[in-house]
């Protein structure tokens, strides 16, 4: 049985390729850096949990031993707290090619349509440098360059596209004149299998895309119809300055570990347009890639898709609300510390305990409100908010039960805050 190693096998493209290779009879090993993401993928593959950017040539040689094909579906959109484009797209491939240069295996590189060393984004430039590394260092390779990939699952830009299409009553137009081509994940996975079987000649570069092209505005409207969302009442065009401001904020959040699809690289890619040339793929004997409408018809939207689109928008709002609420609630006591402490001392609580509870609680409030903004700590911060709120509830029942008599008082409001933190903790997941 032929053996395949899939890099980034739990990602949107990687997971589909791994499944397709398993169905085609390959013995598949997945390589990724998150054991949790690998477990959630439920793929019938063996896993190696490593960071490809940290692997040495010797370690690559051990991983590649016995492999017939390597599929590189690993990638990142922009530098951030968790990603370095040069390391993922270039450095890792240099070590991989050095390790594989004397081995009888094929490398299938999943790049992106539009890559060039003089492109407008570092994403495309680093992808182009990675493609060049493979072309220089190996003889048996195939480079596949898909356009915007549509799949039953959604991450990043495709998730944002669904979310924008699901906004009730309003359909904001963002870069309405940008021209976009799409490709089905089925077509991408099929191309990977063909390349792995060596049905595509070595040293071949192919764009994977539909023949048609549509504006981003039309694509969003089509996704809205697919989700079954009622036509909008208002369709305002988002000013360019507003989009740039949102991108700047998204870049800042990227330094805290959030991979927002509104970062400058993603917006610039859309601004430039996402297009490819489908003719070379057909010339190799491949069937024409499905059109946008054919792709969507093969994955009809479910209620879960509709809910996901709405939750995708609600999650950042929930996190921002929690952060603001907890930071403000922690700072307010310091404006009148004696008065805040007196709330407990007036109810016969010892002064030292009252001061400790107020000051300690305020510091913890601020710390949790800041921690939830850091992606690595967000879920744990949300659970900490629930635990600390529960402690407040228990403490108030013991020392100040009268505070619960006011239906709009401070203690009653703790309960919805706990529920909101629970929502965030449940919805957050990492790739």
Describe the overall structure:
52% of the residues lie in helices and 10% in strands. With 431 residues, it is an alpha/beta fold. It is built from 17 helices and eleven strands. It is globular and about 85 Å long. Helix 3 (57-64) packs across helix 4. Strand 1, helix 1 and strand 2 (27-32) form a beta-alpha-beta unit. The mean pLDDT is 89. It has two domains: 3-301, NAD(P)-binding Rossmann-like Domain (Rossmann fold), CATH 3.40.50.720; 316-427. A seven-stranded parallel β-sheet has the order 3-2-1-4-5-6-10, with helices on both faces. The chain has a two-stranded parallel sheet with strand order 7-9. Strands 8-11 form a two-stranded antiparallel sheet.
Topology:
Blueprint: E1 3-7, H1 12-23, E2 27-32, H2 35-41, E3 46-49, H3 57-64, E4 69-72, H4 85-100, E5 106-110, H5 122-137, E6 141-146, E7 148-150, H6 156-165, E8 179-180, E9 182-184, H7 185-196, E10 204-208, E11 214-215, H8 216-227, H9 240-254, H10 264-272, H11 279-283, H12 292-297, H13 303-331, H14 337-345, H15 351-371, H16 378-399, H17 414-427
Helix pairs in contact: 1-7, 3-4, 4-5, 6-8, 6-13, 13-15, 13-17, 14-15, 15-16, 16-17
